[in-house]
Amino acid sequence: MAKRRTKEEMRAEFHRLYDCFECLDQTIKGLFPRPPELDFGGPISREKMLSFVESGKANFSQICAGTREAINDDLELLEEEPEKAAVFLQTYKALSGRDLWDDVEPPTTVVKALLKRGRLHSAEEFRLLKGQLDAQRLSNADSDKAESMLGAFEDSHDGQD
Q1: Which of 6, 11, 48, 56 has the greatest number of beta carbons closer than 10 A?
Q2: Which pLDDT belongs to residue 74?
Q3: What's the rounded Cα separation, in Å, for the pair 92 and 95?
Q4: What is the DSSP letter of 57?
Q5: Rounded CA gap, 144 and 138, in Å?
Q6: Cα separations (Å) of 41 from 32, 47, 71, 99, 147?
Q7: What pLDDT does residue 161 have?
Q8: Contact 51, 4 (CB under 8 A)
Q9: Spatial CA neighbour of 78 closest among 69, 89, 91
Q10: In Å, how far from its chain's centre is CA 150?
Q11: In angstroms, rounded to a whole number, what is the distance separating the alpha carbons of residues 50 and 63?
């Protein structure tokens, strides 16, 4: 069984993820300009997310999951426009001083691990797997397994998420 992380460890994980997200978001804005009609005021600030924890509206696990989901959404843009991916990765490294894949696992790596495990544990995993399935990035065999896993998750979490 996995060791339960302390509140301090979760806080540090959130800050690490949010640092990564900010760098990703800054890099994405330069390469993938968003039309004004699709700009909804930007992401929720770090301070606002922390205030959700302080007020009891969320916990660190939830804000970490939300930040990971935002990172994965940004990474999907790279898969949609691979010609911009090399520039993106170079820009990220120039801004952060680190390689992107040292900061986050590629969605395909996470999906492979989910398929190997054969079971989804969270709504975040569900959305990630469904996104890869919907984008037709899985083999036929993996697509079949993913559909089965998504169905099982929906059945077991009906009305809970």
Answers
A1: 11
A2: 80
A3: 5
A4: S
A5: 9
A6: 16, 15, 17, 28, 34
A7: 47
A8: no
A9: 89
A10: 17
A11: 8
Closest to 32 in 3D by CA, of 71, 77, 67, 73: 77
Terminal alpha carbon distance of the chain? 24
Please tell me the pTM assigned to this model.
0.69
Dihedral, 151, 154, 158, 161 alpha carbons, nearest 10: -170
* Max CA separation in the chain (angstroms): 47
Contact 150, 144 (CB under 8 A): no
Minimal CA–CA distance to 74: which of 44, 99, 106, 111? 106
State the Cα–Cα distance between residues 121 and 43, nearest whole angstrom.
25
Domain boundaries, the chain: 1-104, 105-161
Q: What are the φ/ψ torsions at residue 60 (nearest 5 degrees)?
A: -60, -35
User: 89-98: per-residue pLDDT in tens?
Assistant: 888 888 888 8
144: number of Cβ within 10 Å: 11
Q: Which residues contact 154 (CB under 8 A, 6 or more apart)?
A: 126
Q: Token pair of 25, please? A: 């978001």
Average pLDDT of the residues in 43-64: 94
